[in-house]
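Form 7-S
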Amino acid sequence: MAVVQAEEIAVGQISGIVDRDIDTDALTAAVYSDESGALLTFAGVVRVHDHGKECTGIDYVAHPMADSALREAVAGFATRAGVHGVVAQHRVGYLGIGGVALFVAASATHRREAFECVSDVVEWVKANLPVWKKQYLADGTYEWSECP
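Output:
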């Protein structure tokens, strides 16, 4: 694994869209700082039920601009007062139940800044990131989600 410098993390260089399993341990370690009093992570995973329907997996598809949009957004969140590092990766491709689709990690001086940063990144992704999901259902059908 390449060494990631703190200034790269601050501008979101390891954030983005990925087509492989998200290495949650590496991302968590990347935002760690001796100056931080809080290190917070969020993993959005594929669940077995969605809106009362049994799900067997999801295929995520991203618009070509999604990667740069996520990197830009993370770079903005990294400039917040008290935040020492923040990363976010969203997976594309097929994921089965329990697969990590979105991972966000942030370190900050205090817990409030870390909680707010992670929450705000997740909400930004849900509201703005052009990623669609093709959800496979247990009855053999599928549904496409609406994209923000």
